[in-house]
Design goal:
Elements lengths: L1 H5 L6 H10 L3 E4 L2 E4 L7 E3 L2 H13 L8 H11 L1 E2 L3 H10 L2 H6 L2 H11 L2
Parallel strand pairs: 3-4
Antiparallel strand pairs: 1-2, 2-3
Helix pairs in contact: 3-4, 3-5, 4-5
Amino acid sequence: MAYLSSGGLPEEKVTARMIRHKALNYQIQDGVLYRRSFLAPHLRCVDAEDANYLIREVHEGICGLHAGPRMVVAKLMNAGYYWSGMHLEAEQEIKKCDSCQRHAGPRMVVAKLMILYR
């Protein structure tokens, strides 16, 4: 975001090249960072706190379906949100859902136990 707003790059050439390359996929509008998308409008980049809230709202909110991580991420991207690692975070948050664990098959219950006891 610092590179897009002010043009500043680190002095290390490899890091600067990587930032310059990744910055092509992003843009700043009115102080908000957006990721460019080919098939949809620009996706708003959110921080970890907002991401956690969005996952929980789509998964178990008023219209929540208690769907799997793939569907939750697809719904969030269709709603116009993005953050790096969204698939992994959605999977971890869904494995914590008590209702899903009560009605899930044995494979999902074991996955939850592995996360809780790490």
